[in-house]
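Late entry, evening session. Most of the bench is empty. Finally got around to the prediction I had been postponing all week. Sequence below, unchanged from the version circulated by S.P.
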Amino acid sequence: MSEENMPNVQAEPGERIAPKGAKPKRVKKERLGRTKKEPSPSDKVKKMTVVVLLICIGLFVFYVLADRYIPSTDMARVRGYVIPVTPLVSGRVVEVSVEPNDVVQAGVPLVKIDPADYQLAVQEAEQGLVKAGQSVGVQTASVASAQAQLSDALANQAHVRTQASRILALSKKGIVPKAEADKTRAALESAKAQVATAQANLEQARKQLGTSGKENSAVKSALLKLQKAQIDLERTILRAPAMGGVSNFRLDEGFYARSGQPLLTFVSGEDVWIDAYFRENSLGKMIVGDEAEIVLDYAPGKVFKGKVASIDWGISWGQNEQAGQLASVTGQTGWLRQTQRFPVTVRFDDDTARGFRRVGGQADVIVYTQDSSILNVFGRAWIRVISWLSYVR
C-alpha cells in the first residue's frame, strides 16, 4: 500500500505514532496522578472496632492498677467525739454562758447552776468540823484549809484524767500525735502530784489535832462531809471538756437541771478524723502511714493532706453463730457478689481543715500507696477534679 493510500492516523493522548516504514506499535498509556484505592466501609468499621477495643483494654488495666496503688472512695465521713454535757448535781440554772453552735476552749464555763444550797452545805460542813475539833480541844482551821486544797486537787485530777483517757486512746490508734500524748501524760502526772501534796498537807494538819483527834470518828465524819460539800459546789459549774462546739440545746435561765440528765451536746474540735470505707480489693497495698488526700463537701475546691492512721481488721457481716443454733447464711442473687468494704481511719496532717470539719460531713479520700509512682500524678489530678465537682454535688 502506498503512502498516499495509508489511512490518516492521529495520535491519541498518551500514544505516539511509529515512524514511517515501521510497524505501528501501541504504547501503554501512562496515567499521571494515579489515585489510591479508597477503603471500603467494612474496613473503617474494623479499624474503629480495634481502636475502641484497645481503649477499653487500656482503661481496664489502668483501673486495676489504680485500684491497688491509688485506691479512692467517696464513702467517707468526718468523725469526732460527741459528748453529752450532764450535770452531777441538781438545781436551777442561773447562767448560760454560750449560744447554740458557739466554739469554746477547754475549761470555759458553759452553764452555772444555782450554788446557794451547796455554799450553805460547805459552810455547814465547816462548822461541823469546827465543832468536832473543839470536842478534842484543837484548832481545825488549818485542817479545813488543807481539806479544801485536797478537794480542788481531786476535782482537777478527775478532769485531767477524763481528758487523758480519751487522748491516750486516740494516740494508740495514731489519730493524735505522740507529742500531744506526752503532754497529756505530763499533765496527768502533775495533777497526781498536786493531789499527793494536798494529801500530805492534810495529814500534817490532822497531826496537829493530836493522837486522839486524828483517830476521833467525829472529826473523820466531819472531814468527809466537808469534802463532799466542796465537790458538789465545784460541780455547779459545767465546763467545756475540750476545744469544740456546743450544739443541740434550748436552754435558758430558770430551767431546772437534774443530775444525770444531759443539758446540751458538746462536739470536740480537737479529736477529728475521717472514717473512709474502702473496697476489700483496694486494701492490698495500703499500710498505716500512707499519704492521703481528702476532699470535704463542706469545702469545695480545697484538698487537704492526711495519713492513714489505722485499718480495721474486721467487720460484722451478720453471721449468727450462737451456741445451740445453726449458722445462718445470707442469700445472694446474681452472678456478681456484693463488694465488701472495710473502715480505714485517716487523720489530718495539720490544722488547715479546722473550721471546715463538721462531724458527719461527707468526704472523698484517695490514698497513695507508693511515694513515687506515675499513677500518683493521675490520682492527684483526679482528686482535684472531684474537689471542684463538690460545688454541684
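Two things to note before I forget:
The chain has a mean pLDDT of 80.
The longest strand covers residues 264-279.
Will write this up properly tomorrow.
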